[in-house]
Amino acid sequence: MTATIPNPPSLKPVHDWLRKINIAFSPGPRTPLLDEFARSLLACFNEYGHKVQDKPQNPLDVLLTTTTFGQPVGWRKSILAHARKRFSLEQTPTVVNLLHITSSQLENSLSHFQAALQKYPPDPQDFTFPGLEPKAYQTLYEQGQRGGPILALERMVQAQAMCLRNILVVGEDQPLEAYTFDLVGAYPRSDASDLETFYPDLVQRIVTAVSTQEISRHQTSGDPVPASIWHTLPTPGQMKEGGRQLGLRNFFTDMVSIANLVNVPFIPETVASQYSEGCFATWESALPALVTTITGSARPVSKYNLGDDDLALITGVRPDGLGALVRPVQGLRNDPPSSEAVELMLMDEGLPRVALGPEYGYAQMVHAPVARSKLHGHRGVRSFNPHRVEHVHLEEPFYHYPVSCGSQAQAQAVYRAFSRSAALQDPGDPRQLVFTVLPGHGLMLAEKWAPGKVPFQLIWEAMDAGDLEIDRHIPQGALEYSADESGMMVLQE
Fold first, then answer.
1. Residue 6 lies in a domain
2. Is 399 in the same domain as 307?
């Protein structure tokens, strides 16, 4: 049963869907600081009503462990890869790794990456670290270009620790701060100047991550679309052109490939061999369905050079909400859609539909979602023109305790945010683009219909005109936009 965790007045707003969890600690290499940190963190879990196990046992939601900063963990010793078998667990728990780094180590690491990221082309020697593959520089440099030195450091930590979720605890003898790293590249900071709020803050971050569930259990639904019909549709070609145009504007970064970072002969079922950077989709009224990019965890996908096999059709959401309904196409590979498939479809609920006629090439009137196309990327928005673009907020807890892609919580957050959009609720509103920022993650952007425009054209034209300024920096917490002297709405964190 879901139980809301108490929210002391000194803490940030928390989600009302958090649950009680089971957590255990299986330490690896430790320092005195990590010993005290782990003891205090587990005591805080206990204080908040969670079950702290003496040793890992069923059922187990979270397994804490430790590694040494800068020292690689061999895959045979990786708890992420072997926790289920090692502790005879029914399922692999969420593994959270703790690392201790001194202030000087952190400063030196960030300075090193800052200098390395200034070089073009990159110098592979700048990205040579113990345990990493020779090609690791490609991923570290690319990620650093996307999110700065701290994201390059984060990917190095994840690769060396053989763990996706890490808490980097900064300090000498006592913690000064901690950074929580996750798959999508978030790095929210927890301030240790007040320990009464420091440990509860980290508890809330961990509990938030495991209180929601993945919604990527997509199901095939409906008869296959005949190849003869598929090849007459305009949307596959428009998706390819949209990807090319976004590529010209460097919107997406390269996918994260585990093989490029580390040599891992065995990858657990909870981890994919690669992760793509975002997705996009547009509506096809003839089917009707969303034409979307496939998941990058299935195989490498270049968003800038799409083929038909890189596309999927979403026709709805499973009744239980745990995945999308996918219609196959004859002759295609029919790989599953992106992990954001449910939110791409769900966000249309609660919004009006619009009538489309000859101005869009339809001989007879058809009805379609007010949002024609949708774009998700691991980018931020530095500024926007409020006369052409609308920003909608998520509910407040998501700015303090964000969730990850492909989760039920994020799909609901995106749906509720866009359902509050004045521009989407009124098709006649002159603002043609609507976006929300997903803290620590990226953005979701919707485009309305406009005669004479192809899918995504309003987006790339707004980028070119300066009406939508995309930024590599992604806010990690609360944010607002305020008007500057020219009337542009500029990010304030």
1. no
2. yes
